[in-house]
């Protein structure tokens, strides 16, 4: 777990890439003035929050309908934003700024960072509308700097950084072995093996360094520079260091992945040479099936490591914290485990189905602490959202943290109440776009089932073995945006043996 920290800063690149780093230029509208439309289906749809082209209502609107332009949209100005982010450490409070701006400007607002422009959406229904209108290859954000690094070093793109047809191809290969719970039940061991190897490698590297600090320092630097990686290209001549560090960080990560992928490849080759059958997890499948090139495999292993390590461990930390603070909830969860599974039985994937409360704990943890407090989408066609015409090519920020804490979406939203997720039928239905911690749709988190399995199994075993309690050292822990939504201070809890 400790060594996972060494990757923390890279994960921040992922977050900033999807949400905060590269916003598009303000798209050009046909005219900057308000659009006045009469009896126009798009305008009628706008009044109801639908997208253009949606089936118009039965009744033709009688009064003049009006679709507003982006110029009319409220939002903080550039100077205020720069002040808030660079002067008042806004990067550490992105989730709170989301809420504050929603209160000040409403559930849809625009922001400028110099020439960069983003429309933020903090409304459950509008988020649903945007995600349901997605095409076959949604774009999360402009990944220019990721692509530039890869071009510079002759590297392939992985799933996070790929776009269009290239993304579609990779997604269709990778999804085969990772997207469904039953795939994960079989292959998660393989994925974990690779991650464990990589983490061990970081540990070894760190202890081998004379000063014993190098990885730690790099980690700190990674974080710092991932923040600064948000500096756009036009500022690079003035501030060159972040880009250099950005490249250096990626060099290290790719090297890690390459070492371990190559080792696995050698092992497979020697098994084949000896006429043995090769079994294994996702990596083995990718290497044997040859559906992706070796470079693409390096890129995907690197990006999965980025996206998968800290997201999972932070969520586990928050869940532990919440359970310690709510002993009555913990007791109910434990009783369910003890009665439906047993006090000592080591759980496997299929056991999780019998334990709706443990799944509800994870859902509620991710509602209160969504590791990615916001997500991004670049509109692929003109949309009318919340009464505004949003042209194709606009960077949207979907404010999941704000919608998670909205009373309209979740009553007693500030409270940890896992039971709210218990339903008669399917627990996994995405019918509340107020909390979609793994995203939604075709571009949603591909590692969701891996993460869920890891967290469910870990929590079950923790609760079978320990009563998790607060200790005199437990202090209230606030969330901090550190790329991801992280605990702002250390979580200290007691693990008392269960009698
Ligand atoms: C608690 C754990 C996790 C959370 C909350 C989480 C959340 C997310 C979110 C919100 C996205 C963006 C989805 C969208 O744009 O609609 C995403 C994408 C992604 N995640 Fe996760 N994730 C977690 C764990 C993992 C793990 C364990 C892996 C790898 C094994 C992983 C790999 C990825 C990848 C590769 C993408 C990019 C998918 C694409 O662009 O097609 N994630 N994740």
Automatic annotation (TrEMBL):
SUPFAM superfamilies: Cytochrome P450. Its cofactor is heme. Residues 41-71 are annotated as: Disordered. It comes from the Eukaryota. GO terms for biological process: C21-steroid hormone biosynthetic process; cellular response to peptide hormone stimulus; cholesterol metabolic process; cortisol metabolic process; glucocorticoid biosynthetic process. Heme binds at residue 445. GO terms for molecular function: heme binding; iron ion binding; monooxygenase activity; oxidoreductase activity, acting on paired donors, with incorporation or reduction of molecular oxygen. Belongs to the cytochrome P450 family. This is Cytochrome P450 27C1. The lineage of its organism: Eukaryota, Metazoa, Chordata, Craniata, Vertebrata.
């Amino acid at each position: 777990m400790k060594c996972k920290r060494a990757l923390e800063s890279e994960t921040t690149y992922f977050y900033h890439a999807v949400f905060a780093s590269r916003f598009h230029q303000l798209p050009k509208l046909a005219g900057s003035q308000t659009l006045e439309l009469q009896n126009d289906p798009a305008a009628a749809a706008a009044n109801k929050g639908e997208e253009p082209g949606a089936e118009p209502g039965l009744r033709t609107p009688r009064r003049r309908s009006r679709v507003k332009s982006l110029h009319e949209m409220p939002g903080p100005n550039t100077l205020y934003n720069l002040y808030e982010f660079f002067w008042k450490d806004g990067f550490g409070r992105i989730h709170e700024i989301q809420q504050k701006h929603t209160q000040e400007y409403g559930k849809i607002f625009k922001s400028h960072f110099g020439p960069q422009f983003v429309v933020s959406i903090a409304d459950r229904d509008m988020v649903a509308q945007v995600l349901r209108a997605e095409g076959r290859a949604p774009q999360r954000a402009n990944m220019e700097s990721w692509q530039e690094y890869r071009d510079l070093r002759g590297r392939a793109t992985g799933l996070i950084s790929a776009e269009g047809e290239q993304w579609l191809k990779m997604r269709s290969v990778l999804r085969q072995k990772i997207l469904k719970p039953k795939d994960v039940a079989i292959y998660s061991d393989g994925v974990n093996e690779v991650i464990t190897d990589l983490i061990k490698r970081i540990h070894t590297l760190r202890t081998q360094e004379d000063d014993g600090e190098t990885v730690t320092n790099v980690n700190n630097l990674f974080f710092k520079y991932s923040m600064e990686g948000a500096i756009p290209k036009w500022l690079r001549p003035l501030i060159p260091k972040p880009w250099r560090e950005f490249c250096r960080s990626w060099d290290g990560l790719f090297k890690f992945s390459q070492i371990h992928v190559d080792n696995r490849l050698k092992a497979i080759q020697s098994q084949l040479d000896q006429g043995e059958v090769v079994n294994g997890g996702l990596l083995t499948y990718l290497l044997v099936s040859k559906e992706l090139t070796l470079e693409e495999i390096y890129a995907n292993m690197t990006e999965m490591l980025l996206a998968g390590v800290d997201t999972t461990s932070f969520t586990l930390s928050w869940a532990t914290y919440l359970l310690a603070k709510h002993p009555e909830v913990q007791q109910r969860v434990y009783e369910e485990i003890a009665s439906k599974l047993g006090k000592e039985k080591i759980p496997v994937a299929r056991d999780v189905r019998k334990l709706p409360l443990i799944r509800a704990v994870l859902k509620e943890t991710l509602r209160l602490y969504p590791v990615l407090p916001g997500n991004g989408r670049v509109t692929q066609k003109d949309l009318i959202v919340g009464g505004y015409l949003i042209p194709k090519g606009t960077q949207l920020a979907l404010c999941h943290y704000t919608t998670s804490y909205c009373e309209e979406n979740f009553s007693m939203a500030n409270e940890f109440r896992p039971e709210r997720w218990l339903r008669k039928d399917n627990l996994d239905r995405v019918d509340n776009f107020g909390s979609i911690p793994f995203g939604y749709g075709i571009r949603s988190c591909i590692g969701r089932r891996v993460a869920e399995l890891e967290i469910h199994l870990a929590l079950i075993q923790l609760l079978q073995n320990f009563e998790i309690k607060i200790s005199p050292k437990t202090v209230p822990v606030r969330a901090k945006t550190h790329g991801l939504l992280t605990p702002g201070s250390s979580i200290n809890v007691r693990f008392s043996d269960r009698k």
